[in-house]
Amino acid sequence: MILSLTELMTTTSPKIISIITATWNDGNYLSECVNSVLAQSYRDWEWIIVNNGSSDNTEEILSQISDSRITIINLKENAGVSSGRNLALERANGSFICFLDGDDILPENSISARVKVFDKDQDIGFVDGKVLTFQGSVENVTSEYIPDFRGLPMDSLLSLDGSVFMGNTWMIRVEKPVKMRFENKLTHGEELLFYIRAMNGCKYDFTDEPVLHYRKHGTSAMSNIQGQRDSFVKIIAELRTIKKVTNNQI
Fold first, then answer.
1. Residue 9, SS3 per DSSP
2. Which residues contact 208 (CB under 8 A, 6 or more apart)?
């Protein structure tokens, strides 16, 4: 039997997914997060977890993990979520990356569903999916987000029309070594600017399957409206320095 190039790549070179997590004081939720990654139906992943100087039992929980695919970095002080993610990105070896906060949960087919979309078209660089927001237990779903755009995502992303951007839910095809980094000076919208910088002429697509269970609680960063406003002002200033973003798009 003669295999096609796509079949040959799939057979001989499994796609390694780098999962990136920067966590701080998520001890009440971290075990659920860990278990959700270990339960993934797609097995060819690595997970780089940066413990951002947590003062709770986060380090103790992480010390109990025994899986060669997981790298844990314990920092003495909280360097911020962007710095933590950047540190993890420096260690990433995968051909694809995705992000996961320590208080959220990956549905069982979160990775496999997105990989299947990538397999459809080599011009796809970004894959998203359904997000279920919950409070308390994962069964208590309070809202649902479903992307509804396919194609070149820059205009939709910049317009914040909700068709491509909910948060850190994109899986991204990357070149190794991974050179993309988050902007440390932002407290909100860091994913938005990261994705804008990642635009490389590749298409955006999505799966109808859930890719994230997003936990909403009182300490969520998105509850800080003033912080969001200040960060968007900084993002607009940063957009003016990016050549591929036009004045009309800004």
1. helix
2. 129, 130, 146
pLDDT in tens, the chain (250 residues): 333 434 434 444 689 999 999 999 999 999 999 999 999 999 999 999 999 999 999 999 999 999 999 999 999 999 999 999 999 999 999 999 999 999 999 999 999 999 999 999 999 999 999 999 999 999 999 999 999 999 999 999 999 999 999 999 999 999 988 999 999 988 889 999 999 999 999 999 999 999 999 999 865 555 678 888 899 899 999 999 999 999 999 8
Q: How far is CA 213 from CA 152, 168, 169, 189, 208, in A?
A: 26, 12, 10, 19, 14
DSSP 60-101: HHHHT---TTEEEEEESS---HHHHHHHHHHH---SEEEE--
Instruction: Report the C-alpha gap between 146 and 207 in whole angstroms.
Output: 9
- Which tokens is 216 given? 């909403």
Residue of 187, 191, 147 whose CA lies nearest to 167? 191
**Residue 125 to residue 114: CA distance in whole angstroms:** 11
Exposure string over 114-139, b if 16+ CB within 10 A, otherwise e? bbebbeeeeebbbbbbbbbbbeeeee
Q: Are 93 and 18 in contact (CB under 8 A)?
A: yes
CB atoms near residue 155 (< 10 Å): 15
Q: Using only C-alpha atoms, what is the Rg of the chain?
A: 18
